[in-house]
Request: fold
Amino acid sequence: MTSSPSADKTLRIAVIGAGPVGLALALQASRRLPQAQITVYDAAPAAVDVSGDPRTLALSQGSVQVLQRLGVWPQIETHAAAIRTVHVSQQQPALLGLLAPRLGALLSGTAWPNVAAAGARPAQRAGETFDASPSQNAEPELVMRAGDLGERQLGAVATYGAIVAPLRAGWLAASAAQPTRLRSRLGCKVQHIDAPWQAAQARVVMGGDVPDDLHDLVVVAEGGVFADQARKAVSRDYGQTAWIGTVETEGGEPGVAFERFTPNGPAALLPLPPLASTVPGRQRMALVWCLASKEVAARELGAEQRCAVLQSVFSPRIGRIVSVSPLKGFALGLNAERTLVQGRSVRIGNAAQTLHPVAGQGLNLGLRDAAVLVDRLARLRPGEDPVKSLRELDLERAPDRWSLIAGTDFLARSFTWTAPGLSTLRGAGIGLLQLATPVKKAVARHMMFGWR
Reply:
């Protein structure tokens, strides 16, 4: 019979899932919990090369700092692009300009008067009032710059492979150095977890002839995509598809992440590092284009048509789109647990909440889940049962989790509402936030570091 942690003072932790969140947690725990025995499980064998996975992930500055502390950021940074400015705008049927021209001008994008981008508005001269006539189609804009917050960058963009490969290498090196304490069970698919809090230990079941493993705590960080997940307590299918690809532009400002609200759904362009083949003066950008799933046009468009349609979708601030890669679609929805803690198991990252990509915060929320969990475990006294501490974890994470879940859910659903005037109200909110500088800075810091 295996003894409890109170008897031998060893905390046994299982981490299910060797993605960025699971590996970041395992590495943090290996350093901050020197007496803990940590085992990482993943269905993919150790020989699988993850570095080429092209999925694009947006990292907040808080997530960059986590990766810096883990010592893997230098490897990631060489394949990442910094986000120095976030530009949010709405493709507005010029209702504000029609109803109230002066208000439309005030809420439009005059914060970017000097951008030498294709289609950019000219700079204003002293005493000159920006012409917000309907012909100019003034649009609400929100601009958040790192320099205004005293930061070098707001975050960064990198591929899944560029992030996971150094994390995996770091974990494998650590487990090779301490094989009795840090264990890797890669190529082992977990079939079931039996982890009621009343039991002395949690049981990880692999099935077949493989014996079960016993742990004091199981951390589930294996999320997957919305379409493949079992439905959780809070679930909603948005009836939308995210079309993912790569765009090349010329004439825009480097280091800018664009978020565009359109009548058909949100769209985003995120900066990517150039390739050796990238033409000088052009910028590579990751595209996330959300449309109603019943809209099949995105799948059927040819290369030139994709360029033309996306040019009309985004603000002229992006410059000129010169090429668009083939697009891949993913169904979108909300799928969240009401509680992170279930007995002796804890769910973090996409295993706890899968969000709409409208805010690009899914990975960042998962990394914060991991950091807070490790911090709580580090406060345990030697031999103390983690269940006693975990019962407070949900309360600590609730403001950050539910503010982001509710915010992204509200934005995602707002594109399906047909009541007249709602898009105008959303646009007015964007413009007013641009004017309210202290509030804008608070929002920017929340997106960078989460709820503090």
Notes: The first strand starts at residue 12 and ends at 16. The mean pLDDT is 84.
